[in-house]
Amino acid sequence: MPATTFVHRNLPRLLLQARESVMAHTRPSLREHGLSDQQWRVLRVLGEHGTVDTGRVAREAYILGPSLTGVLARMERDGLIRRQRDAADQRRTSVEATAKGLQMVAQLSDTIETHYQWLEQSLGKQKLEQLYLLLDQLIALEQP
Hints:
Helices cover 68% and strands 8% of the residues. It is mainly alpha-helical.
């Protein structure tokens, strides 16, 4: 039986490969701080937006609800975040970074920004901006 011939390259695989290539520069710093990729995504959301509800954290950090519950529990145990039930709606929970969590965001953001500066120098500012634009367009195009 002949192999299936695809006309286009495997875009999902390329996007995953690109993610892993970028994260290969970030992960060592995350591990030095005792953070998983998911914990960093949560802290980044909180560092950018302050106190938010868990639904927004899940959406912006791309973590499914059941996994997010465990991630937040570990982060709370480690003193990185605080969770609080909404007084008006007990089904809702808000999350905020503690001083320790925000300090970690500040420390890691320097390392991550240095990597982005290297990417910009390597690709050129115009190409990096074009990459961001194309990714934004692809995301918008594929939204239901």
